[in-house]
């Protein structure tokens, strides 16, 4: 028992993602009018957006680009010391890039790549969101007014990358950042087909799944959370009323047990809304491994997985 | 069995109500921005408003007035012949007023008063709502787009009048209009304290409850329906975020078992949102009578009824 | 206007169905333990079952049989006079069979067949359910205690027949029984592929859809209603925990907008749980007609319809 | 920045509570038949009970006693080393009692008292629940089958103690255990009236509120979590059907924003069901302080707090 390995807990949570879109105006309208997000700043070709329940200034930087896909992903550390420790570990891994002076909403950050080539950064100093008059909430323990406009997403939930190989990326996140694997898929030939990584009690914040097209650096989807199964139904109705293409759901994932709804935003990126699932209270959680046969059973309610779900990612690969 | 009395079923449903407000701009903002209703016309000092699920052009005429309260209530008949039959019966009752040429959205109507002095009309010819381009629904069996703005009420649900005496009003509705009583409250001294009247399978559309101030012609509340218990929670959150005063709920009525949420619109009228309850399939439904003792137990979950609920109505009576 | 055709409204509602099962014990366990229904009588090879919200004694007669499928369907009329009128009309149609002395829970009934060969009966005299001590409800306007066991279905909702031809069956129901069509599917070649019939404000109680196997007298499914979208999720979880095969859903139908969940009971019959949809308030409702192209778009949220949905019925046809 | 104080995170979560009841049979029936919990062991005068979503063997030890109230509360540490560190800190505080050999489901524990006299223990070694055949779940990432019986609570959520003084108890939990305060009430005279303490991302697991009767060691309530607002409605219906007295709710707390429902179990203890609220992602969360005036506004939707809520606790104090 003395040899029990105390866990590293230096990453606090997923902070924000930069999403790339070739249709910035239509994408912005989707996130603001359909998802009900609020603008929290603009700079260059980027607009910063937030959900009503988020304590930081924003959770998404929407940036104009030739192709849809993911720009960078930012993780907040638990302390300045934790930032230094993770910096040292990443530097040692050889995947480090260097320090930045920060961006709107947060201080200096350390940039790096995961083995698959997705850009990332870690930071500690963060601006706490101060709502302007028209977005001031009724309850002081809530960062922003719930406006009742559109879907009304609470905040960024997680990001799911596509990767040429899942295992080295998952291993890097475990070794260099101290994340842990709550669930994974291991195929009969030993290939890891999916890895769900967590930092705190939320059971996943970063996910790697296999890219069937064998490309690198692509995005499968980003996810925003809502509060209920009813919110997912309401969102599906709002999507249909506004010609937003639903890819799948509302339904329930077998892995993680999250309730989900997938659509494509006008720029082409897959966007998930999620709620439910479970929290990890056990400090000694044992990774749940799904076999190929178990995976083939489909989602929780035996819903077959949509074919495009296994191949589509951004940037789009023309076959 | 040959002597079984076949029911009159000449009234199809509650069509619309005219609500009076001394603060027309604030009231209009409440119904449009908070409840998410759409404008369907303007005339004189009135704005016509509708919910997304309603087949007629509007369900509420909001009219500027010195005092809040109820203008008139309109019921649609099942056929032109039914309109003539009900006209004849009302005329005979002595409460009739006369025919009108109709209004925006409906043809000629016959006006009358209930014994307590609430203005009413019956009509048959009605305009079916044609949604303009920006409100066109995705599904052709739905009259209007669900916009995702604010509470998003579906349609008018029922109206609850205050009356000096409940029984004669309820009896008039049964005799002259052919409505039936699904539930009622009868106090120990024999006084009828509440009567819930229905026309079709919906278990109530008109309600009379006792006016504790002994006035006549007052309004207790009008009600719009939403689709779920979750919608009531969402509405309560939207109310609080927008300084709309909640009087009671979300909770569940013992009588009718409807889930409810009460607030006051800026003009002072009590507005209920409701969902749930039951439908009356039995053609030989027997009125459910609640005694004084049963009534004293509070709402379905033993929630004590709010004191203002027993006294407040519009126009407001200063004690 | 004088020539306006006043509607016949002689049928009050769908009363009960007789479901046939080759596995009576397993089917009974499904309806009692999984759906949470209560026994309300036994006779011969049949068990009578009920949902908590139903005013009549039972809504399903479960009968042992060599094959799964539908026994008979019973409709309650609005009055004894209405029963006589419908008897006369059916007799005239040539589809009549004759009077019965009644069954547990209801008085004399008139038996007939629809053109496709499904057995039916109409009756008026009905026993109102009297709950035994252990099933007595807390609220007097509710026929039975909600026990909290399993899914907890409220009552029978509708029945969907398969038919070799849809149109003559739908027309018979309109002419002889006075039902009306709320929605229908008409293919490009003019074939009617589906007809949804209603009696009161509930937008459908009997449905005919085309039998792709060209057989007669088969059942597509029977449906019980629950109260919410959350209840459907809970039911899906309960199904999966108990190895009940889900065929589709929870999702939303485009036609009728009902939220649904399909499974197969152990005897092989398809069972739907449903909630939501809309009520028909308009006395002059115009049938909504879906074209082949509109139908091909899938369910409300663009969910593709499950292939088995178009072919499977009971009795099962081996191809 | 170098001087940033890195947080202690040695407590993983609330493990279980021992609840005392003078009516062991009735209490047991409540927890099993109404809340839907499962037995996970018996010893002496105690029965061990669990919710379907819990990874440890049980979350409540129900013990026969002359009086209702709380026996002991157990917290699991993050590691064996964390257990040693907390043992050392508690020992130093003077509130330590000593080591036990453990109990059903967990290894050795260190017992202590909080300043108000509530018994507590910390432990690390814990048995992971292995479901017997009839409780085996369909999905391997779930510890136990969801049986669909009664309310169906997922797991223990938090405990709320009454204390003669709030502040010294809250301070002890911060200093000796490393818990942090997410929200608190500070009255105008400086008295702390409530303190909500958290260990991980769950925003509270231990709560102290002021005992209006000036007693020590009493319990205000224990709370189990369910998954949705709909589950709370369903629970309220189940309570009423089974003569369980509801004290308040379903409604929404202003503090913590949790959706709640309070009742009394047959032994007299107050039991809360909860869902919703928020998660604490910020490592530098700043305690939210509610003033006396803010507190007086009632719950989130302005629901007035029930008077008994301020005075009733167990053991009951006769005034």
Automatic annotation (TrEMBL), chains A, B, C, D:
One of its GO terms (molecular function) is ferrous iron binding. Pfam families: Glyoxalase. SUPFAM superfamilies: Glyoxalase/Bleomycin resistance protein/Dihydroxybiphenyl dioxygenase. Transmembrane segments: none annotated. Keywords: Dioxygenase, Oxidoreductase, Repeat. The keyword Hydrolase does not apply. The keyword Transferase does not apply. It comes from the Bacteria. This is Manganese-dependent 2,3-dihydroxybiphenyl 1,2-dioxygenase. It comes from Paenibacillus naphthalenovorans.
């Amino acid at each position: 028992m003395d040899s029990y390995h105390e866990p590293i807990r230096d990453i606090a949570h997923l902070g924000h993602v930069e999403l790339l879109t070739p249709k910035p105006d239509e994408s912005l309208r989707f996130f603001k009018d359909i998802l009900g997000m609020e603008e929290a700043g603009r700079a260059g070709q980027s607009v910063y957006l937030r959900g009503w329940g988020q304590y930081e200034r924003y959770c998404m930087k929407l940036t104009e680009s030739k192709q849809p896909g993911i720009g960078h992903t930012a993780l907040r550390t638990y302390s300045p010391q934790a930032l230094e420790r993770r910096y040292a570990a990443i530097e040692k891994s050889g995947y480090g890039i260097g320090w930045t002076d920060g961006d709107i909403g947060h201080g200096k950050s350390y940039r790096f790549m995961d083995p698959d080539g997705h850009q990332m950064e870690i930071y500690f100093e963060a601006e706490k969101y101060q709502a302007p008059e028209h977005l001031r909430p009724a309850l002081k323990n809530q960062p922003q007014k719930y406006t009742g406009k559109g879907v009304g997403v609470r905040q960024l939930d997680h990001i799911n990358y596509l990767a040429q190989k899942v295992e080295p990326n998952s291993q890097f996140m475990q070794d260099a950042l101290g994340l842990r694997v709550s669930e994974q898929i291991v195929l009969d030939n030993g290939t890891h087909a999916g890895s769900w990584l967590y930092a705190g009690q939320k059971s996943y914040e970063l996910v790697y799944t296999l890219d069937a097209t064998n490309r690198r650096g692509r995005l499968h989807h980003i996810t925003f959370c809502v509060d209920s199964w009813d919110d997912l139904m309401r969102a599906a109705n709002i999507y249909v009323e506004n010609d937003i293409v639903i890819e799948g759901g509302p339904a329930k994932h077998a892995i993680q047990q999250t309730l989900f709804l997938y659509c494509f935003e006008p720029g082409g990126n897959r966007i998930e809304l999620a709620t439910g699932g479970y929290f990890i209270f056990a400090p000694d959680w044992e990774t749940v491994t799904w076999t190929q046969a178990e995976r083939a059973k489909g989602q929780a309610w035996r819903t077959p997985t949509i074919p495009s779900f296994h191949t589509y990612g951004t940037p789009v690969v023309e076959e």
